Amino acid sequence: MALRSVIHGLWMASIVIQVLLTAVVLAKKLWLKSPIFSSYVFLNLLGAAATYVAARDAMAYFYTYWIFEAIGIVLGLAVVREIFTHVFSPHPALRDLATMIFRAAVVALVVLAFTVIYVQSGNARSIPNAVLLAAEATRIVEVGLIMFLFISSSAFGLHWRQSVFGIALGLGMFAAVELVTVTLIGHVSSATVLTLMLVRGVSFSTSLLIWLGYLLVPERATSNAEIPKRAQLEQWNQAVMELISR
């Protein structure tokens, strides 16, 4: 019971942080610069409020949670795409290539989810099973792409004091923990599931605090001196452009 109380407390705390984060997004008009991330923030708050209201009825909570979870999975992947679009904005060919890859990934994940639902149409757990599979695949893509982004941050001109860096950091940390959670949750005991949910709650709240902090602290612009490999990135852009134009 103590662990459940802590998890519930984290849930309430995350809702409060999400309200603050949403207020900052609205005050800074962040949707003009990062519309997908802003939508992700709004969806998380709406989902938290909806599941809180639906918590009194088990069936209503079940469907509300998994519907918002499924939407959040796809939107989370779109946030990664938006990060890369922002980073690649000076390089249109690389930006277009990243867009094509993300669209293909989203289509593949949707097909995977509906295939599992169709195969397990007689199973009441077909929806969460499909979402868990899609979540695992999505988190692998998210973690891999964000790791690549951080490793190559100097070439991309990404600085730790940029808001887009904070968005990637918070999302990457949560995606990594979520990947471990969705991979293990179907193979562990109920007590371990509670521990995983506690870790997930801490991770999500930490990500919210990272986003909130980065939006509140003034951003420092990236100078040309911080982009030593910009010429190589431009070469990649030119090579992709030539390949597409053939």
Q: Quick summary of this structure?
A:
The protein is an all-alpha fold. The chain has helices spanning 2-27, 35-54, 58-87, 92-119, 126-151, 153-156, 163-184, 190-216, 230-245. It contains nine helices and no strands.
Describe this structure in words.
The protein has 246 residues and is mostly helical. The protein has a single domain (2-245), classed as Rhopdopsin 7-helix transmembrane proteins, CATH 1.20.1070. Helices cover 81% and strands 0% of the residues. The protein has 9 helices and no strands. It is globular, with a radius of gyration of 19 Å. The mean pLDDT is 79.
- Count of strand segments: 0
The top-level CATH class is Mainly Alpha
Count the domains. 1
Distance, first to last CA: 64 Å
Provide keyphrases for this structure.
mainly alpha; 246 residues; Rhopdopsin 7-helix transmembrane proteins; globular; 9 helices
SSE topology sketch:
Layout: H1 2-27, H2 35-54, H3 58-87, H4 92-119, H5 126-151, H6 153-156, H7 163-184, H8 190-216, H9 230-245
